[in-house]
């Protein structure tokens, strides 16, 4: 059986000529008895094997493997793969015997580890990339005649790039929109290559494996002489001052929020808090969401330590989730300050515009519309008495509410200032939610009139429908939601006829008032829904991902592909292989990634935002308008879930904020030192 082997090499190894790099570390991923993947994570000097004892090497490999993700440990173990020589000074047989001695030597050191495979690679300037496989120990057999596919990859580094087989937020398609051929369905039913996922996962863990191995093998603390330099002292002082400033500002904000929370719990102010939560429902929801996000930032900074995650892909996802929250807060505060400062500097003009708009809306639309409906609207002959009653009730309600707003006009100036202060302090979402609540309260008379006329219109429609079923000899069965046959008496038909005629003749009069107030109420609700949509967009938009995508698209991979550099057959020169029917094949390629577009990044976030809205709900709302049901005043868009409220002393919260920033800076500097010591050349090659 012809065997096939894929060797995944870091770009550093495929381009180096350094003879000190002779030991290969990584993972063996076995597909079957004839297929094998060899993922090389890094190389190190062969003298490190002789300097450490056998138990020490075994312990180092075991502890390094424990730091890898559980999904990778279940599929493959981190181990010593084999040797890499820059040249062969003897013939093939002597070199093979020499490597067999090294294989048995390491096999004795790693009795409990995976030792069924051992690979020997050599540097060959005549071959592609200057490297080729000499032979491989495969389950006790020495194999040199196999198809070899050498795949060169850039070592993934956190903040630079990584590899992924699919979309990050791809959701499975439950139903195909169009009928597809049978061969397409069979193709989708095929099981994916689990081993390929394991290979990509191991490649994403290569950098962490190298850092962990070198830490454990050297058994030295990560100290550096530059820690005692002037630059390190200046950097430490700068971080301490920054942490002190941010912690002080966060503590002031924390004390202000806690003061509001404590005052609302007092019995004297409890009724004020209950009333405000009912009248300012949207404001309280957005206020709690944004306040909890700001108050929990030190905890999230400590919990989401992305540098400790071994897999670069998982670390990138965790970092982007955290950055999305922080960027949303920052953008919200910036927009709130822009809107708030604009309102503060133009309060007088905004007040005059609001007075002018309220006057025109009340006189030119509401009063004029009611008077027009009491006459002959659009040439329709209505019932004069019913139109007069409905019109006078509407005019009286409008006049009463307008009179009340005249006494409240002096508070408009302070109301605008309150919107501005909310935007500056808590962000644009809280001030926009407050505007929604103010619009709802200011148009309460229109909502009441619409509710009253909707009640009359819906009952009239239901009565006409019931009487129409009476004439047809049908009756509604509410248990089975269907129409059943029913025998009505003559008296029931006579009474039904007497009721049906006036209700049908009065329906046009009721309908025009219902249509007028429905249009008015829907227009006001549309404005509130537009503001609600803006709030949800501010919450859902991943600003950090957009900015990172503009400058480094490599951090958003979507599938991999191979760029073939070299392909040839009959790679062996031995005369013993002339009788083989199938000559070995050597193929060298580069591992490349596709990248997500900006639309593919934004679509999952906006899909989640509109998850509560469907075509059926829109159809139900449209049918409800015709039958006399009220339109919903909210879209029901998805908002971030509020976090639990935080209770701790002010001093403890300041220490928490200060410690989170200092620890994050120390972990970042230590991580950078580890990269410099563990990946001096790989980082440069990946960034290039």
Model description:
This protein has helices spanning 11-14, 47-51, 54-66, 70-73, 92-109, 182-189, 194-204, 206-218, 230-265, 267-279, 281-295, 297-303, 312-345, 347-374, 384-407, 412-426, 428-442, 444-472, 490-540, 543-551, 598-609, 615-627, 650-678, 682-687, and strands spanning 4-10, 21-30, 35-45, 78-85, 117-123, 131-138, 141-143, 147-153, 474-477, 482-485, 557-569, 585-595. The protein is α/β, with parallel strands linked by helices. Among the domains are: 4-167 and 204-222 and 558-590; 345-517, no CATH class. The strands form two sheets. Strands 7-6-5-4-2-3-1-8-12-11 form a ten-stranded mixed beta sheet. Strands 9-10 form a two-stranded antiparallel sheet. β6 and β7 (141-143) form a beta hairpin. α11 (281-295) packs antiparallel against α17. The chain is elongated. The two termini are 41 Å apart. Mean pLDDT is 78; it is low at 107-114, 169-178, 220-227, 571-581 and 677-688.
For the residues shown, what is the average pLDDT?
Answer: 78
The end-to-end distance, rounded to whole angstroms, is 41 Å
Strand order across the largest sheet? 7-6-5-4-2-3-1-8-12-11
Shape: elongated
Which stretches of 5+ consecutive residues score pLDDT under 50? 107-114, 169-178, 220-227, 571-581, 677-688
Portion in helices: 55-70%
């Amino acid at each position: 059986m012809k065997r096939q082997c894929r060797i995944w090499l870091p770009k550093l190894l495929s381009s180096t000529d350094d003879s000190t790099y002779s030991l290969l570390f990584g993972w063996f991923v076995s597909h079957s008895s004839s297929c094998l993947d060899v993922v090389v994570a890094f190389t190190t000097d062969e003298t490190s094997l002789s300097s450490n004892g056998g138990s020490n090497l075994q312990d180092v490999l075991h502890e390094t493997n424990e730091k890898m993700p559980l999904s990778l440990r279940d599929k493959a173990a981190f181990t010593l793969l084999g040797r890499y020589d820059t040249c062969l000074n003897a013939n093939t047989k002597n070199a093979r015997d020499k490597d067999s001695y090294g294989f048995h030597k390491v096999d004795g050191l790693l009795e409990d580890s995976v030792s069924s495979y051992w690979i020997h690679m050599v540097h060959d300037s005549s071959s592609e990339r200057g490297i080729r496989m000499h032979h491989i120990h495969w389950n006790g057999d020495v194999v040199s005649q196999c198809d070899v596919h050498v795949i060169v990859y850039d070592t993934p580094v956190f903040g630079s790039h990584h590899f992924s087989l699919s979309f990050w937020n791809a959701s499975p398609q439950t139903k195909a929109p169009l009928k597809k051929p049978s061969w397409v369905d069979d193709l989708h039913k095929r099981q994916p290559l689990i081993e390929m996922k394991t290979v990509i996962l191991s490649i994403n863990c290569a950098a962490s494996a190298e850092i962990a191995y070198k830490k454990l093998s050297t058994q030295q603390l990560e100290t550096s002489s530059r820690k005692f330099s002037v630059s390190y002292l200046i950097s430490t002082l700068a971080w301490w001052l920054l942490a002190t400033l941010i912690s002080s500002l966060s503590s002031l904000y924390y004390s202000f929020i806690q003061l509001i929370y404590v005052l609302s719990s007092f019995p004297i102010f409890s009724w004020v808090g209950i009333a405000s939560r009912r009248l300012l429902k949207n404001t309280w929801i957005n206020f709690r969401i944004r306040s909890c996000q700001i108050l929990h930032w030190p905890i999230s900074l400590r919990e989401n330590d992305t540098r400790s995650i071994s897999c670069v892909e998982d670390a990138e996802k965790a970092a982007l989730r955290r950055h999305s929250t922080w960027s949303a807060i920052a953008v919200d505060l910036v927009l709130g300050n822009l809107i708030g400062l604009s309102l503060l500097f133009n309060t007088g003009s905004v007040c005059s515009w609001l007075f002018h708009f309220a006057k025109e809306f009340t006189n030119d639309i509401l009063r004029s519309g009611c008077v027009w409906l009491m006459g002959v609207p659009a040439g329709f002959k209505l019932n004069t008495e019913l139109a007069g009653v409905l019109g006078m009730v509407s005019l009286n309600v409008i006049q009463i509410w307008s009179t009340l707003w005249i006494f409240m006009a002096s508070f408009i100036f302070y109301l605008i200032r309150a919107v501005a202060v909310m935007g500056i302090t808590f962000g644009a979402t809280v001030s926009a939610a407050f505007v929604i609540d103010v619009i709802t309260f200011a148009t309460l008379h229109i909502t009441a009139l619409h509710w009253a006329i909707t009640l009359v219109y819906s009952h009239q429609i239901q009565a006409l429908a019931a009487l129409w079923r009476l004439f047809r000899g049908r009756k509604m069965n509410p248990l089975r939601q269907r129409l059943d046959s029913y025998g009505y008496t003559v008296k029931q038909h006579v009474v039904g006829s007497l009721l049906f005629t006036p209700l049908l003749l009065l329906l046009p009069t009721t309908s025009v008032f219902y249509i007028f107030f429905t249009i008015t109420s829907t227009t006001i609700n549309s404005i509130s829904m537009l503001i609600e949509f803006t709030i949800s967009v501010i919450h859902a938009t991943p600003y950090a991902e957009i900015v990172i995508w503009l400058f480094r698209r490599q951090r958003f991979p979507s599938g991999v592909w191979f760029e073939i550099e070299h392909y040839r057959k009959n790679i062996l020169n031995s005369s013993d292989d002339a009788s083989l029917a199938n000559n070995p094949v050597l193929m060298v390629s580069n591992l490349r990634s596709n990248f997500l577009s900006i639309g593919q990044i934004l679509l999952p976030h906006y899909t989640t935002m509109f998850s509560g809205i469907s075509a059926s709900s829109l159809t139900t709302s449209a049918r409800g308008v015709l039958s006399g049901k009220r339109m919903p005043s909210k879209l029901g868009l998805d908002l971030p879930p509020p976090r639990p409220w935080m209770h701790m002393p002010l001093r403890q919260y300041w220490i928490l904020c200060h410690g989170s920033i200092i620890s994050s800076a120390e972990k970042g500097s230590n991580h950078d030192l580890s990269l410099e010591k563990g990946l001096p050349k790989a980082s440069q090659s990946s960034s290039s």
